[in-house]
Amino acid sequence: MLGFLTARRAGLDDPLRLRRAESTRRVLGLQLNPDRDVDRIHGNGINTIDIEAVEGRYMLSGGADGVIVIYDLENFSGKLQYTCKAVCTVGRSSRYVHKFSVETVQWYPYDTGMFVSSSFDKTMKVWDTETLKPAEVFQFEGNVYCHHLSPIARKHSLIAVGTTNPKIQLCDLKSGSRIHILQGHRAEVLSVRWSPRYEHILATASADSKVKVWDVRRASGSLFTLDQHNGDKSKASSEAVNTAHNGRVNGLCFTGDGLYLLTSGTDDRMRLWNSATGENTLVNYGKVCNESRKRLQFTVSRGCSPEFVFVPCGSSVAVYTLHTGELVTMLRGHYNSVDCCEFHPDYQEVYSGGKDCNILAWVPVLRPSDVEEDSDHEVKGAAGQSSVNPAFQDAWSSDED
Amino acid sequence: MSRKRALISDAFNLKKRRNGTEQFGATAAEDGPADIKSSLEYLMTLFPRKLFNDALPQIVLKHQLYSIHSDKTLVDKEVNKMRERGDLLMFQLGFDAEAFGLVFTSDYKAKVLVGEEGKTTRATVERFLEKVVSACTDLSFTKDKMLKEFLFTDSEITQLVKSGVLTVRDAGSWWLSIPNSGKFTKYFIKGRKAVLSMVKKSKYGEVLKAEIEERRTNSQVKFHMKYHIHDIVGAELVESIPTTSGTLLRSVDS
Q1: For A337, what's the count of Cα atoms within 13 Å in the CB-facing half-sphere?
Q2: Which of A8, A19, A234, A301 is most worth mutating to test chain B (most B CB atoms within 10 A of its CB)?
Q3: Which stretch of DSSP H or E encloses residue B199?
Q4: Which residues of B205-222 are buried (b: 16+ CB within 10 A; e: fewer)?
Q5: Handedness of CA A374, A376, A381, A387 (dihedral sign)
Q6: pLDDT for A336-390, tens place per residue?
Q7: Which of B135, B147, B5, B65 is nearest to A3 (CA)?
Q8: Do B249 and B239 contact (CB within 8 A), yes or no?
């Protein structure tokens, strides 16, 4: 670490290198921290969490009981022990609450004044954060498994919605219309994701084992379907079809730069694809336990080198290195299966939520600070802290003169 | 290419390395490509040739290599390299979509020709081995390919299927296969189930690897215990946990 610091100071290294090295070191030191807690509001499992992109301060969570909670993640109290408090809740008592479980929540990418939630009650609601009332409600014929707003879109404000219907609907936020449909899948669509690199590219995953990549400006079908054997027909057990997995595909995640796409399926495999050509990079992650019948929310770190994937695996979160497929560690702490996890890029923290109604925060634990620094901090910090480090206390008795 | 500056990933050793060369418990094979060939050869020695009266070439499963080497992607790459060089042949064994069998090409050719001694199909099989097996690395062949590229007639294809070198997959396509491998598959699956139940039935559902290797094999298990252990560890049917007394195998509850 000191090598990186001196090289940065002397100008031998790019400033980005030091930042990446420190981010990687912090991610490798992720642990469950007894000092960091998230307020427990949900009475039922937590299906989805989302951290806003603008400041990284507020986190949304959607639960199996239809409740939506907003937490404040910033620690302004000055103390080490901090509980992320719930700022506001759309609880069961609200008139507009979803009737059944909330499957996906997402902040509006440009500010926290709005967020979108979709649920098994066949609706998708666009909420105003201030008043916690829905500004717009979209009705669908089937359960809504997932939706996604493009994080970089400037020319459109489309929400892609995946439901039990094999057709993917694109809803326009500006006009409220929903005439754009993407056809091609044969079974329910479990996950949709816009590319963080190109605002018109959309990837969708379905229970028919296929992952299709679309350009929404194109009138005809998808750009390509991902094929796990890379066209090597000899390996497939049946010749006909390009499949991304040998079972339902229930998780999709682009890497931060949008160059690679990760997919996970119920065949217990996770695959990394080149998002431009659709080629399977054949990185072997081994068995990634996946029994989810709905969408699995997993995430990739940003700003580290090498990048890490955090994927919920049973009741723990598995951390793999992105390009080599090596299992780095398993983050254990949940009492029941984990459904979703999200990476906070500024602080290199991971938040994960599961069926045990807890959201756990995994915080980088580095070497504890020295004694001297501690006492300094306490003196400068809140007044009235009476504990002084014994090393600085007078040890001689005052009886002597 | 020499690096003036170290890679960021090298700065953070994920595991603390002890100064001693012997590590407690789990021994990990480090180093690269050369070792994959030697681990393949080691695994081949575990294959019981007498059981099949020497009629079968030694078969190793690709995931058995994962239990020896930690980097699966590297193992995959090396195996593909060896296949492209023509040293190694890969087969779809049929009972699992992900289970691939590996056989050294020389072994395979030798055993197949020995098996074909005195049979009418011999000439066709020889031609097949020369033209197809040496030339392309596919696992399966379609009718089109066989007729046009390799110029085999329909009756010749029937002869190949009869001799066991090709197995029917679909109407009009065939897997490359090992003749008389049905017995292998049968004993293999039986043995795998038996070993897995041995692990499951032990107290707490876990057993030390060294201990289970020493156990007497019951009548279901025809192969060497180590062969099956490598298989279940590599296919991740049991969790392999390094402890101070050696590697522990714990059955995965699914």
Answers
A1: 11
A2: A234
A3: helix B182-201
A4: ebbbbeebeeeeeeeebb
A5: positive
A6: 989 898 999 888 899 999 999 989 999 888 776 665 544 444 444 333 344 566 6
A7: B5
A8: yes
DSSP structural state of residue B87: S
Q: How many Å apart are CA A353 and CA B95, to the nearest integer?
A: 37
ipTM of model over 0.85? no
A89 vs A372 pLDDT, higher one: A89
Confidence (pTM):
0.82
Please indicate whether, in this complex, the C-beta atoms of B8 and A305 are within 8 angstroms of each other. Answer: yes
Of the candidates B6, B75, B139, which has its C-beta nearest A234's C-beta? B139
| Contact between residue B33 and residue B78 where contact means Cβ atoms under 8 Å apart | yes
* SS3 call for A185: coil
Neighbours of B3 (CB within 10 A): 7
Chain B positions touching A13 (Cβ under 8 A) are 5
Quick check: A242 and A224 in contact, CB under 8 A?
no
Asked if pLDDT for residue A273 goes beyond 50, the answer is yes
Tally C-beta pairs within 8 A across A and B.
62
Element housing B82 (H / E): helix B72-85
Q: SS3 of A214, please? A: strand
Residue A306 per-residue DSSP state: S
d(CA B158, CA B153): 9
**Which of A28, A233, A283 lies closest to B12 in CB terms?**
A28
Amino acid of residue A195:
S
Partner B, chain A 264-303, Cβ-Cβ below 8 Å: 282-287
> DSSP states of B221-246 as a string?
--S-HHHHHHHHHHTTSEEEEEETTE
Q: Tokens 């499963």 map to which residue? A: B61
Closest CA in chain B for residue A291: B254
Q: Which residue of B has its CA nearest to A240?
A: B170
Q: CB–CB of B71 and A287 under 8 A?
A: no
Q: How far apart are CA B223 and CA A199, in angstroms?
A: 56
pLDDT at A113: 92
> Residue A372's pLDDT is what?
53
Phi, psi angles (nearest 5°) of residue B173: -150, 150
**pLDDT tens, B179-210?**
888 888 888 899 899 998 888 888 888 899 88
Q: What is the mean predicted confidence (pLDDT) over B210-236? A: 85
* pLDDT, chain B, mean: 80
- A69 and chain B: CB distance < 8 Å anywhere? no
Q: For residues B31 and B39, give the distance between their C-alpha atoms in angstroms, rounded to a whole number.
A: 12
